[in-house]
Design brief:
The chain has a single domain (about 1-150), classed as Rossmann fold. About 40% of the residues lie in helices and about 10% in strands. It is built from 7 helices and 6 strands; from the N terminus they run βααβααβαβαβαβ. It has helices spanning about 5-15, 20-30, 40-50, 60-70, 90-100, 115-120, 160, and strands at about 1-5, 35, 75, 105, 145, 165. It has a 6-stranded mixed sheet with strand order 3-2-1-4-5-6, with helices on both faces. Helix 1 crosses helix 2 and helix 3 packs antiparallel against helix 4 (about 60-70).
């Protein structure tokens, strides 16, 4: 499965290996997911996972991200003419569109491709700082979201824990 994984999922997965985000990280390490990424996403992964507040050993962070780079697929994102509530989410959607992702996995509650379409703006926006001059496309990948407010219970199925938007 070709996926784009939001940074908050990786952070939560490393912090809580037994929870749904931890199972996502396990699936990445088992080769069940091909993680799509670009330089902007990898840079964000590295910067956030290395924050002292999390206390993750840098050797573990490097090992995880080296694995993602070796087994994942680098993608040049497509410029999307949308404005999101959090502009830092845009590179994830742009990579998903360019890489023809099967899903975008996020921990942001209520995120969906419908939400992205509803917040689309045809007005000009500044070019993405990570990949200027990209083409315009649309996003067809579904979002898989498990927000903090969702009760996850004791299910053995990831699908049962996720809310498909």
């Amino acid at each position: 499965m070709r996926v784009v994984i939001d940074t908050n999922v990786l952070v939560s997965g490393v912090m809580n290996p037994q929870g749904p985000p931890g199972r996502i990280v396990d699936e990445v390490l088992a080769g069940a997911f091909t993680v799509l990424y670009d330089d902007c996403i990898m840079s964000e992964y590295r910067e956030v996972l290395a924050r002292p507040a999390f206390g993750f050993p840098l050797t573990d962070v490097d090992a995880l991200l080296d694995f993602v780079e070796m087994t994942g697929e680098p993608v040049t994102g497509l410029r999307l003419p949308i404005v999101l509530p959090d502009s830092r989410d845009l590179p994830f959607l742009e990579v998903a569109a360019a890489g023809r992702a099967d899903a975008v996995i996020t921990g942001n509650p209520g995120t969906s491709s419908r939400d992205a379409a509803n917040t689309a703006s045809r007005s000009a926006r500044p070019p993405s700082s990570c990949a200027p001059g990209r083409l315009t496309s649309s996003l067809d990948a579904p979002f898989i979201s498990f927000g903090q407010s969702r009760s996850l219970g004791g299910s053995n199925s990831l699908a049962a824990d996720w809310e498909r938007a």
